[in-house]
Design a protein that fits this description.
This protein is of the alpha/beta class. The chain has three domains: about 5-200, Rossmann fold (3-Layer(aba) Sandwich), CATH 3.40.50; about 205-260; about 300-435, Rossmann fold. The protein contains 16 helices and 14 strands. The protein has helices at about 10-25, 35-40, 55-60, 70-75, 100-110, 130-145, 165-170, 180-190, 205-235, 240-250, 270-285, 290-310, 335-345, 365-375, 385-390, 405-410; strands at about 5-10, 25-30, 65-70, 80-85, 120-125, 150-155, 175-180, 200, 315-320, 350-355, 380, 395, 415-420, 435. The chain has a six-stranded parallel β-sheet with strand order 3-2-1-4-5-6, with helices on both faces. It has a six-stranded parallel β-sheet with strand order 11-10-9-12-13-14. α5 links the parallel β4 and β5. The longest helix is centred in the middle third of the chain and has 31 residues, at about 205-235.
C-alpha cells in the first residue's frame, strides 16, 4: 500500500530518500528552506552528486511521484509520514548541533495543530540517544497534541555510503526502527515494504546509538588495517596478502566471534601475541595507537569490574569460574585472577568454584602463574558449587558452564548476581538481584 511521505531536508540523505521512496511506489514531497533545492527537485534534478540518483529523480518527476516545497504546513497536510533528514554538525566541543532539527520540529509541531488524523515523524538524521525524547516533548508543546495518540516519533537511522547510496537504500543490512508505538511501527512497515532487508524494531535509544557504533567500528577496522600495513612495510612483507588471508577467516576474524559485551580477554595467546606485535612496531620506530591501546582498554575493564564489586557493598563474594574461559583449566593471564587478587588485598571474603580447575593437578607454567598471583589459592577454591553459592552474598559469574543453571535458579533474596559472561538473566537467578557487566 502506497504512503504519502514528506522529507524535511533535501541534502544527501533527504535527496536519496526522496528518489528511492518514490521509486518504490510512494508519493513524496521534499521540504527545504533553500528555494534552489526545491527548484531542483521540481525540475526532476538532484541536489547532490550521487550515482544513479539523477536518473531516478528524472523518471519519478515525469511520473508525478515527487515534488518539493518550502511550505512545511502544506507538506504536513498532504502526508502521513515525515522524515527529518537535516544536518547535525559537530560543535567545537564535540557535541551535536541540533539547531536545524529543533527548528524543523517546531515547524512540524505548529503544522500538526490543525491537522486531523495521526502523523508519524521519523528521525532519519544521526542523533545522540535521548534526542527522540526531546523531539517528543517539543512536538507536544508546539502542537498541543499527545504522543502515541495523535502523533508518534520513531528513530530510523540511515546507513548510506556515498557513491553506493541508492543500492544501500534498497538493500541495506537491516531496516532499523526505534519505536514504542505499535501503530507507528506498522506505518513504517508499509513504507519499507519493498526494501529487501530484515525489519528490526528496537527501543529508540538503541536505534539512536547504532550509527555511532557502526561508524566507529568501521573507523577502527581502517586504522587497524593501516597499522598492520605499516608494520608489514617495515618488515618488507606484502600487507595486501596478509590482510587478504586475514579476511578469509570468517569463523573468527570477519564474524560475530568476540563481538559481545563482557569481561576482559586473557589466556596464553592473546596477551602474548599482542605484546609481540607491539614490540615489532616499537623496534621499527612505528607508532601504532590502536594496537598500543588494546591492553590498556582490557585493564580498564578489569578495573571497572573491581570497582563495581566494591560498590555493591557485599563482602562475601563467590566467583563461578577461575580459568580465562569456560571449558579449560588454563589460568595463565586469566583476567579474573587480577580482580580476585585486588579484592583479597582489600579484605573481601572470597570463595571460588571452577569445575575444571583443581589446584593439585595443575602443572608447569599454569601452576606457577596462579601460585605467584595468589599463593594461598587453595584456601579460597572449592569443589563444592553449592557451598560457594550458599556462602556468598555476591555471586560473580565468570564462565558460562551448564552446571550453573540449576544452582542460580535457587538463589534467594538478599543475594546479588553479577554476570560477566552473559550466562544468566533476571528471570534465571531465582529471587536474587541481577546485573551484567555492561547490561
Amino acid at each position: 500500500m502506497n504512503v504519502n511521505i514528506s522529507i524535511f531536508g533535501l541534502g544527501y540523505v533527504g535527496c536519496v530518500g526522496l528518489g528511492c521512496l518514490a521509486q518504490t511506489g510512494h508519493r513524496v514531497i521534499g521540504v527545504d528552506p533553500q528555494k534552489s533545492k526545491v527548484d531542483f527537485i521540481n525540475a526532476g534534478r538532484a541536489t547532490i552528486i550521487e550515482t544513479g540518483i539523477d536518473q531516478i529523480l528524472a523518471k519519478q518527476h515525469e511520473a508525478g511521484n515527487i515534488s518539493a516545497t518550502t511550505d512545511c504546513a502544506e507538506a504536513i497536510s498532504r502526508t502521513e509520514v515525515s522524515f527529518i533528514c537535516v544536518g547535525t554538525p559537530s560543535t567545537p566541543n564535540g557535541h551535536l548541533d541540533l539547531g536545524a532539527i529543533l527548528h524543523v520540529v517546531e515547524e512540524i509541531g505548529t503544522a500538526l495543530k490543525n491537522k486531523p488524523g495521526r502523523h508519524v515523524i521519523a528521525l532519519r538524521s544521526t542523533v545522540l540517544p535521548g534526542t527522540n525524547e526531546k523531539v517528543v516533548k517539543l512536538l507536544e508543546s508546539c502542537s498541543g497534541k499527545i504522543h502515541g495518540q495523535d502523533f508518534a516519533v520513531v528513530s530510523n537511522p540511515e546507513f548510506l555510503r556515498e557513491a553506493t547510496a541508492v543500492e544501500d537504500f534498497h538493500k541495506p543490512p537491516f531496516t532499523l526502527i526505534g519505536s514504542r508505538i505499535e501503530w507507528a511501527t506498522d506505518v513504517l512497515k508499509r513504507v519499507y515494504a519493498s526494501v529487501q532487508a530484515p525489519f528490526l524494531v528496537v527501543e529508540p535509544e538503541v536505534a539512536e546509538l547504532m550509527k555511532y557504533v557502526c561508524n566507529s567500528y568501521h573507523a577502527l577496522k581502517i586504522t587497524f588495517a593501516n597499522e598492520v600495513g605499516n608494520i608489514c612495510e617495515r618488515l618488507n612483507i606484502d600487507s595486501r596478502k596478509v590482510m587478504e588471508i586475514f579476511c578469509l577467516d570468517t569463523k573468527l576474524n570477519i564474524s560475530k566471534a568476540y563481538l559481545k559485551p563482557g569481561f576482559a580477554y586473557g589466556g596464553s595467546c592473546l596477551p602474548k601475541d599482542l605484546k609481540a606485535l607491539r614490540t615489532i612496531a616499537h623496534d621499527h620506530y612505528l607508532e601504532c595507537p590502536v594496537l598500543e591501546g588494546i591492553e590498556r582498554s582490557n585493564e580498564l575493564q578489569k578495573e571497572l569490574v573491581c570497582r563495581e564489586i566494591q560498590r555493591l557493598g557485599k563482602r562475601k563474594v563467590g566467583f563461578l569460574g577461575l580459568s580465562f574461559k569456560a571449558g579449560t583449566d588454563d589460568l595463565r593471564e586469566s583476567p579474573i585472577v587480577d580482580v580476585i587478587e585486588r579484592l583479597l588485598g582489600k579484605g573481601f571474603s572470597v570463595l571460588v568454584y571452577d569445575e575444571h580447575v583443581h589446584i593439585s593437578s595443575l602443572t608447569g607454567a599454569n601452576r606457577e602463574f596462579i601460585l605467584q598471583k595468589i599463593p594461598y589459592i587453595s584456601s579460597f577454591i572449592s569443589d563444592d558449587l553449592k557451598k560457594v553459592v550458599e556462602n556468598s552474598e555476591l555471586i560473580v559469574i565468570v564462565n558460562n558452564e551448564p552446571r550453573l543453571k540449576a544452582v542460580l535458579a535457587a538463589l534467594g533474596p538478599g543475594q546479588v548476581v553479577y554476570d560477566l559472561a552473559n550466562a544468566a538473566s533476571s528471570q534465571t537467578v531465582g529471587k536474587a538481584q541481577y546485573l551484567g557487566v555492561s547490561w
